[in-house]
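Structural prep section.
Before we set up the soaks we want a predicted structure of the protein with zinc ion in place, mainly to decide which crystallisation condition to try first. Input record follows.
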Amino acid sequence: MKNHLFSLPLLLLLFTTSSEKKSSVSNSPKKTFASAALATATIDVASKNPIAVSAATILSRKQIPILCYHQIRDWKATDSKRAKDYIVPVNVFKEQMKMLADNGYHSILPDQLYDYLANGTPLPEKSFMLTFDDTDLGQYSVAFPELKKYNFKAVYFIMTVSLNRPNYMSKTQVKELSDAGNVIGSHTWDHHNVKQYKGKDWETQIDKPTKQLETITGKPIRYFAYPFGLWNQQAIPELKKRNFNAAFQLITKRDDQDPLYTIRRMIVPGYWSLSTLQKSMTQNF
Ligand SMILES: [Zn+2]
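Run finished without errors. Recording the tokens verbatim:
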């Protein structure tokens, strides 16, 4: 794993180090992503924190269904029942996307969700969000072309240790997803539980991987997904300090003080029927 990390070109490592400070806008990669952000109009390069709206107001707004996927591939005989929570067969996934499109669902992205939750900016009817965790290759090879059919966009939360490894996405593929209008989010270096971070862990698991993703995409990375969905209140100021606008967990209760850093998502298990999916999208959010 270390070998993988250190196989990055020296230039990339230098940039990663030199861009630790938010204010270093003078080097060219930063300029690239500053202009990329300008091109996307209303999205600030600067962090959206702190916000004026109260936590109670955010909590009072109706939640938007957010789906969380991991592997999109056909089951193997060796896949356990538990594993199938995280493996959606190719045709099942395709049927799910078709069902959502046929029923008039609109995919939204995190900046839209943020503007809705924090500022009350209205969203289209039947808005939902698609998120993919852990960098699995099927998210690019199967899900991405399927989403394109319906003009759905998604968030890909990348665990950077896996980049360019077999059965995982490459840096080039992540860049392609980003260039196509999808959002790349941070999901740590190697999936360690945030609740256990001490000392240099924040740098290893959050700072360096996030900078690497910014280098790959040429865009600021403003959204984070907790590995295993696990979070605690101590993690939230650390994420704010690092200019994340929001963070995504799984289906547990949101934090009373910081609902934007505990946004709920629902894993879609591989054995759900279309009607179970649709019902869960209404009942769980
Ligand atoms: Zn994960």
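Observations: Strands lie at 66-69, 71-72, 87-88, 106-107, 127-133, 155-158, 183-186, 223-225, 246-248, 266-267.
Flagged for discussion at group meeting.
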